Amino acid sequence: MSKRNALVSTMILLVMLSMMSFMSVSAQDEEPTATLETLPTATPAVESIGSGGLEISFWNGLTGSDGVTLNAMLADFVAEHPEISVTTEIVEWGTLYTKLQTAFIAGEGPDMFLVHANEVPQFASYGVLTDLSGWYDTGGGTIPADDFAQPGFDGAFYNGTVYGVELDNHGRGAWVNVDHFEAAGLDPNTYPENYEETVAMLQQLTLDANGNNAASEDFDPENIVQYGTTVSEWIYVQFLQYMWGMGGDLLSEDKTTATINSPEAVEALQRMYDLIYTYHVAPVPAGFDTWQAFSTGAISILPTGTWFRNFAEDQTDINSQPWPVLPIGDQRVSWFGSHIFLVPNTTTGEKLDAVRTLIEWVTENQVMWAASGQVPARLSAQQQLDPENYPSNILIGQTFTEYGRMSPQCQVILELEDAIGPELDAALNDLKTPQQALDDAAARMQQVLDRTSC
């Protein structure tokens, strides 16, 4: 079998597996989107920007207000480069991955696209990406490699070759309802230091219809009107950071064995479960809209990410402020990732030159991208952010440096995540015990790892 036929056969198998697994994944495990600016999840939101004859097609999964910000930047770009136009297709991340895999097989992919850093190995392993080493000053180009924050910049590499250009660091923190804190006699500028302090704080913030908090003997858990927090905004990454905080991990050090059912991981999921069913300070995930609940005052602390900035400021009347992650694990760990621009190796000639011009323009203007809520990848852009306009970017971004951790890079990370998501949902919706759920997740992950290397 030729290398090309082998690649096509492998990719067809991956697409089939991805399609089957995506059908079973709960929407709770996808990156959340803003309510007002939400774009379609199945059909791409297509926008043509500019009228230049040299047209670039660009696919991404920025379905929230961050996608609106990037399109606004692209409008500025084509104004400066009128010979170029950009057609963006924005579709939710899960659908995007399958769409990309199918497009590569058919030879009908975009001219450029955006993924997360931990997914770069999967696409690079297909042999469909352009080596971008020559775009950086270390390879004779103009992009300053040493201006990108680590470890996020490492996410643009695969087997020592740089295949992408990093756009940002984005990750987990929280937003709190300041009025709820003051009403409960709590200081919104004092953070809990451990799980016990977190539970005690959340009990004070959780109220029933009679005004009793969850620490009261008269508290009615069947009639809660205000929850202290939620565990259901992107369950997968919430679990990751709590598991890491307990000392657990998804995989063994050599990435050959699933360790998601270790005692440390089970304890992390048990603590999330207990917030719902033992302490009654978080709602059952099924059918609960976390962003809408925060905007109506039904949640005091919303664990979310940098992407929440515009929703908090523009789409709610809540007196809120950003916070670091809650210490549900024994140590505070903040999950973060990076968005990476990638270029298929089918983009050549004038198209490749235009794509390079666009990506270099965006990376030179990353301060504009901070308006999305994300933290610019370039250190020089981070240093230009002022606390008055970008408090959440700065506060949450600092946690990435202090105790942040990125998802592991792996050629089959999408399949592994698909194996985990439904099991976390099952545990937190009380369909399985945390131990049962993670045992089942480990078994499904191991099947993937035994079939192909990570």
From TrEMBL:
It holds the Pfam family SBP_bac_1. The keyword Nucleus does not apply. Residues 1-27 form the signal peptide. SUPFAM superfamilies: Periplasmic binding protein-like II (SSF53850). InterPro entries: Bact_solute-bd_prot1, SBP. Keywords: Signal. The keyword Signal applies. It comes from the Bacteria. PANTHER family: ARABINOSE-BINDING PROTEIN-RELATED (PTHR43649), DIACETYLCHITOBIOSE BINDING PROTEIN DASA (PTHR43649:SF12). This is ABC transporter substrate-binding protein. The lineage of its organism: Bacteria, Bacillati, Chloroflexota, Candidatus Thermofontia, Phototrophicales.
